[in-house]
Design brief:
CATH superfamily of the largest domain in chain B: DD-peptidase/beta-lactamase superfamily
Strand content of chain B: 15-25%
Number of helices of chain B: 21
Shape of chain B: elongated
Helix content of chain A: 55-70%
Largest interface: A-B, 51 and 43 residues
Structural class of chain B: alpha+beta
CATH class of the largest domain in chain B: Alpha Beta
Number of strands of chain B: 21
Distance between the termini of chain A: 29 Å
Distance between the termini of chain B: 146 Å
Strand order of the largest sheet of chain A: 1-2-3
Oligomer: heterodimer
Radius of gyration of chain A: 21 Å
């Protein structure tokens, strides 16, 4: 199938054409990452599909199919649903505030009877969609600096504050940074960006000392000096660094990582799976996986730049920004460069919710790719 | 109105801004990933060795293994203290499992009553995390396997096999060898051997008394270690046997004691309280050192209950006291050889006769002889043979205390011997100097003090060991023998007891006194003739009886102590050596509050123990062609083995108890 076929309106609406327009190299990269995750889970479970590797692959398979399905949805559907999804997410966050399930001191879950889920996950995609939708409708001039900017600021602030209040600082931070990324991508004035960065840097120490919960503060402080409490909060960071460092260049060998196999490494199959990988496959394995992540990010960014609609561009780039933040924050945490915040490594880590969120995001990106020539007009001509 | 050009430029402007910014995002992502890669390179390439070391120290752990405690054996290699396997139950406080809950679960499998559970909970509070606490020792095989089968459900419980100290001869050696017990907090020190980590091991025991305490460091051995792979909770996953450091067993401590003599000595003591010490008259080796009643040291290893301990501590015959070393008693008439030697050295003519009429007036009171009727005119030889008190009253008075003290010290009174174990009490050797410095309320030596001193009463006390040393020195006849209890440690011979200077007495005087002792046991009129017949042919025994009063006889019509309560009865003593021609073994027997005479209560026991010692000696055995069975003690004395020329008829009925 050629580009020309895609540029012909009648042709590009055919399902087969859409199907071929999905970035299959990108899809294979995703499969490789998820497969690597399953490989490590198989190892740390003592060469067993149970309890992690099997379910991980099964979920990925389900999410992969979902991603393909979402890619075939017209980008105008996404456009039309942008505000409703954001609004629904906000309502669910409010619901959590009042009727949410409290586990381990944090109210993050909504019990739906058959399953419980975290509305904050909806918001990760919702904020990208809503901001892309918003910036689609305003001019570059307004996007740079105008009174209109109060609206995206409020759109970001509302979910961030609600999630932070649960409290789930990691997700709140992620939503805030994702939102900020979209605002910056849309063309925010450098003056505002500079001022925001400076005031944020100034605010961090105050936040740490006065706003954070005790356990959150402890995490940050032990990050700054992990050896101060090697058996307490600093334990995670220290053990993770030992796992990484002891892997050396070639690693200890598959299934031979003593740190992960003997449980010295905490959360070895979820947040710290990258350390498991580093221990058993060494620098070589890590470099390959980081390269895969880089490839995924750059393919997604290229998809964003190909889109003709401003909505598509911003939505795809926003999702990519979220993914990049996940990778960088988890990597920095595992390597002892950031406090332990509970952000998993996307696709590698065990955990259904995050995988679902990420793959829905990639579904949106692929939809943008498949419909990159589709005209998206604000208001009129919308699909719905 | 919107112009298309403006519209398009506006669109292009938005697109251009996005492209510039998305390059920025790409750059940010690339920089971030590169930073991660750089960090990885730093950790995995530059610092890999450091982290590999940390990882190995996580993964591998050395678990201390207590070394097998050294054996304690007798002079022939018979085992007196050894170790046997012990199934024990350990619970570790791992911070995850509540020890109280664990104990409740364990109570289904092993007997753990409430009181014991409470005691253990207190112990858990004291012990640091990850240090195992011994919940039960000596489980049966059934209990051991029942726990082991359920081990996966109870990760903080281990049932393993350790070693426990065992004393095969129970009570006979309890005082000499002592026992081992759990380490107390008071035992731990900051530095030195008691600071080692192995002391915290639940299987480790520390010597508490006697040889176990004195030679604790030699018996301990070198701690070993097992290299084990552990998981994050400290549970063992695998044992890396190649990395094990074997434990070196402790040194063997060889004693000079003889298990047969020691056991027989405890047997003959029966219910009586007292001590028996047997010493080699040529080498100074102690063949027997028994204190009765005794206790089972094995009970102490397991840990005594309060009730058991109280029963032992409160019994008036004091089983926990080592009467051979720590109990001091007036030597009574067994001291008369010392008085005699002192008198000879002071120039008193032994052939001078002193008349005994059963009592002697001096200092406003009558000093009675044990024999109411009196002995008549006695020279020194007769006085020893008959144990005449009146003779020694007067001799002692004549020469004064300092001559006696000199002789007593030369024979071993008043001193503690270096036998390797602590606990000896020196007793008292009276002299004018001693009384001036030690007796504050009456520092003057009165003539009356000398009178009782002469018969081993008053300011003279001794322990069983000193009496044996005295007898051995007299029997040896030349050397100032020292006792030796520990023959070798780890194969290294300890200094013998016969490399000593000679006694400060002339050979003539020693022979004279020895002749007196021979007469006591072999002359038909000697005080212990009947009770000193060994029945071993021409192997004969010499001895001296003693009865030490513990209450004043003033105003007491009846000296017979059979009717008074135990604590007021006389002590009965007997010292002896054999054979008389080539002295080989010396023995001292103390029967605390025996209430009979030295001849009746102590001498038969000495004879029995001496027979065992002699019969084990190959040289002596060769001399005895056909040892005759010994008749019952209460029967009339045997005649067959009596010395040449002895008359077969029994001596007339004892007029009283010889002292």
């Amino acid at each position: 199938m050629t580009m020309s076929a895609l540029s012909r309106p009648g042709e590009r609406d055919r399902l087969v054409v859409k199907f071929t327009q999905i970035d299959w190299t990108f899809a294979i990269a995703l499969c490789l990452l998820a497969g690597t995750g399953a490989l490590m889970m198989f190892s740390v479970a003592g060469s067993s599909w149970e309890p992690w590797a099997g379910p991980h692959l099964f979920r990925f398979g389900f999410c992969f199919v979902l991603m393909i399905a979402l890619a075939l949805f017209d980008v105008r559907v996404w456009f039309a649903l942008a505000y409703p999804i954001y609004g629904l997410g906000l309502l669910l966050l409010l619901a959590v505030e009042f009727v949410g399930d409290t586990r381990m001191g944090a109210t993050r879950w909504l019990d739906l009877g058959f399953m419980s889920f975290q509305p904050s996950e909806v918001m990760k995609v919702g904020i990208v969609l809503a901001l892309a939708r918003f910036y689609h409708g305003i001019s570059a001039e307004d996007a740079r600096l105008s009174w209109w900017l109060i609206i995206p600021a409020l759109m970001i602030a509302a979910p961030v504050l609600l999630v932070a209040h649960q409290p789930d600082l990691g997700t709140a931070m992620l939503i805030a940074l994702t939102g900020a990324a979209v605002v910056v991508l849309a063309g925010l004035s450098w003056k505002i960006i500079g001022a925001a960065v400076i005031s944020f840097v100034a605010a961090v120490p105050i936040m740490v000392m006065f706003v954070l919960h005790e356990y959150q503060r402890a995490r940050v402080l032990t990050f700054l000096d992990p050896e101060s409490d090697p058996s307490g909060s600093g334990y995670h960071i220290l053990q993770s660094k030992i796992a990484l460092g002891s892997g050396g260049f070639f690693g200890k060998g598959y299934g031979l990582g003593s740190q992960s196999q003997l449980n010295f490494l905490p959360e070895k199959h979820t947040d710290f799976i990258f350390a498991t990988l580093a221990e058993e496959f060494g620098f070589l394995g890590c470099a390959l996986v980081l390269a895969l992540f880089a490839a995924v990010i750059f393919m997604a960014l290229r998809t964003a730049s190909l889109a003709h609609s401003h909505f598509g561009r911003l939505a795809a780039a926003g999702v990519t920004a979220t993914f990049t933040l996940y990778v960088l924050i988890n990597g920095a945490m595992v390597m002892g460069l950031a406090p332990v915040v509970g952000v998993p490594m996307p696709l590698l880590s065990y955990g259904g919710t995050v995988m679902l969120t990420v793959m829905i995001g990639w579904g949106l990106v692929q939809s943008v790719r498949v419909h990159r020539y589709t005209e998206v007009t604000s208001g009129k001509g919308a699909f719905v | 109105m919107s112009e298309p050009s403006i519209f398009f430029s506006e669109v292009n402007e938005r697109q251009g801004a996005f492209h510039r910014r998305s390059f920025l995002l790409g750059g940010f992502a690339g920089a971030g990933l590169l930073a991660l890669g750089g960090r990885l390179a730093h950790l995995q390439l530059l610092e890999a060795q450091r982290y590999q070391k940390l990882s190995a120290s996580n993964q591998f752990n050395f678990r201390l293994v207590p070394p097998p405690r050294g054996l304690i054996v007798d002079r022939n290699g018979a085992v007196l203290a050894t170790n046997r396997p012990n199934f024990r139950l350990l619970v570790v406080k791992d911070g995850e499992h509540e020890p109280g809950e664990t104990l409740k679960t364990l109570a289904h499998f092993v007997p753990l009553d409430e009181a014991r559970q409470e005691r253990l909970m207190r112990e858990f509070e004291r012990t640091p995390n990850r240090t195992p606490v011994s919940v039960m020792e000596d489980m049966t095989w059934e209990q051991f396997s029942a726990i082991n089968v359920r081990a996966p459900e109870m990760p903080n419980v281990t049932a393993d096999m350790g070693e426990v100290r065992v004393y095969p001869h129970g009570g006979a050696f309890a005082h000499v060898i002592g026992y081992v017990a759990k380490v107390n907090r008071e035992d731990l020190t900051e530095t030195g051997p008691n600071s080692e980590a192995i002391l915290l091991h639940p299987g480790f025991r520390i010597g508490r008394q006697g040889v176990e305490k004195a030679f604790d460091l030699d018996l301990r051995g070198r701690t070993g270690a097992r290299k084990v792979e552990v998981d994050a909770r400290g549970r063992e996953i695998r044992n890396d046997t190649d990395g094990d450091i074997p434990a070196a067993p402790g040194k063997t401590v060889e004693l000079t004691l003889d298990v047969d003599i020691q056991n027989r000595a405890l047997e003959v003591m029966g219910d009586e309280s007292g001590a028996i010490v047997v010493m080699d008259c040529r080498s100074g080796d102690l063949l027997c050192m028994v204190s009765a009643p005794s206790f089972d040291a094995n009970r102490f290893v397991r840990g005594l209950s309060t009730a058991e301990y109280r029963a032992l501590a409160d019994y008036e015959r004091r089983p926990l006291l080592d009467k051979a070393m720590s109990g001091t008693y007036p030597p009574g008439s067994t001291f008369k050889m010392t008085t005699a030697l002192a008198a000879l050295a002071a120039g008193i003519n032994p052939e001078e006769r002193i008349h005994c009429s059963g009592g002697w007036r001096f200092g406003g009171r009558t000093w009675r002889c044990w024999r109411h009727g009196g002995h008549g005119a006695q020279n020194m030889h007769d006085a020893i043979k008959n144990s005449c008190d009146v003779y020694f009253y007067q001799v002692a008075l004549r020469m004064g205390p300092d001559h006696i003290a000199r002789a007593a010290k030369a024979l071993g009174f008043g001193q503690a011997f270096d036998i390797g174990i602590p606990g000896q009490r020196t007793g008292v050797v009276g002299s004018t100097d001693w009384k001036r410095t030690q007796v504050k309320r009456d520092p003057t030596w009165h003539p009356g003090d000398s009178v009782s001193y002469g018969i081993g009463q008053g300011y003279i006390t001794a322990n069983g060991l000193q009496l044996a040393v005295m007898t051995a020195r007299l029997a040896n006849g030349r050397k100032q023998l020292n006792p030796r209890l520990v023959k070798s440690v780890g194969g290294v011979e300890m200094p013998p007891g016969d490399e000593v200077p000679n006694l400060p007495f002339s050979q003539e005087h020693l022979d004279y006194v020895r002749a007196g002792m021979i007469a006591v046991a072999n002359d038909r009129s000697g005080t212990a003739f009947r009770q000193s017949q060994l029945g071993l042919g021409d192997v004969l025994m010499a001895g001296k009886t003693g009865t030490a009063q513990v209450r004043s006889y003033d105003g007491v019509a009846n000296r017979d102590s059979r009717s008074v309560r135990w604590g007021l009865k006389d002590h009965n003593l007997y010292v002896a050596f054999a054979p008389i021609d080539q002295p080989r073994y010396a023995i001292s027997v103390i029967i605390q509050h025996g209430g009979l005479g030295g001849a009746t209560a102590a001498a038969p026991r000495a004879r029995e123990v001496m027979r065992v010692a002699l019969l084990k000696d190959p040289e002596i055995r060769a001399r005895i062609v056909q040892p005759m069975p010994l008749p019952d003690v209460t029967d009339l004395p045997p005649v067959g083995e009596a010395p040449e020329g002895a008359v077969a008829a029994p001596p007339p009925l004892d007029p009283g108890e010889p002292t």
